[in-house]
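User: I need a structural model of Molecular chaperone IbpA from Bradyrhizobium sacchari for a docking pre-check later this week. Nothing fancy, just the predicted structure tokens so I can convert them on my end. Input:
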Amino acid sequence: MRYDWTPLWRSTIGFDRLFDVLDEVQRTADETYPPYNIERVDENRFQISVALAGFSSYEVALTVEQNVLTLEGRKGEKDEKTFLHRGISTRSFKRQFTLADHVEVKGARFENGLLLIELQREIPEAMKPRRIAITGAGPGKVSQIEAKAA
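Assistant: Understood. Predicted structure tokens for Molecular chaperone IbpA:
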């Protein structure tokens, strides 16, 4: 079931990104492989941990294009092994993450069967909040607009 967020657009300002994210979550709700975590390391650093047991670094591709981080995995040659039970999935996959503005991928590494992707938000100086001086009549000063008697 899909929800239409259009009525909420009329009464909100600056929350358009929130509705885009909600729509994205709704679209990808059925995608469950490979499992992953997203962790906030500190205010401007994040880490995505993806469980990739059975994959090696040359079987995984990580790309970033226009605020979309794409992770693709494709197993190389097929094993000629006979399995009595196969619980570790090695199927091909493609998972995409939408990155917020000014978030950059700083690196990726395999560690204990997890692919760890390091992200950092780097807000340009021009985008950071700054205090604006307000000029005008100070306290105790009263200015009067000139008016002519009718």
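Before docking, keep this in mind: Residues 1-30 form one domain.
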